[in-house]
Amino acid sequence: MLCNAGGTHYVVDEMCSHEDYSLYLGCIKDGKIKCSLHGSYFDLVTGQPTCDPADEPIKTYPVKVEAGQVWVKA
Ligand code: FES
């Protein structure tokens, strides 16, 4: 999932690590994405959860933007 946090792009797995629930509906705040089901936040750089109930990270991918195109290393 491609995220734009204040103009900086991040790519992370879409599914929350707590239960299989899409992070697509979550909000982004202070470099973290919130799971809208139980409220865990994940750091968009490291994928690490920053609060319960999730205790496993989500996968993150290197991303760069060049000439208006987004490149992701999967
Ligand atoms: S499914 Fe995301 S925190 Fe529970």
Helix/strand/pairing category = mainly beta
Rg on CA atoms, Å: 12 Å
Task: Give the H and E element order.
Answer: EEEEEEEE
Helix content: under 10%
Tell me the CATH superfamily.
Answer: Rieske [2Fe-2S] iron-sulphur domain
Strand count, sense and barrel status of the largest sheet are: 3 strands, antiparallel
CATH class: Mainly Beta
Number of domains: 1
List unreliable stretches of 5+ residues. Answer: none
Named CATH topology: Rieske Iron-sulfur Protein
CATH architecture name:
3-layer Sandwich
Number of helical stretches of at least 4 residues: 0
* Strand order in the sheet with the most strands: 1-2-6
Shape: elongated
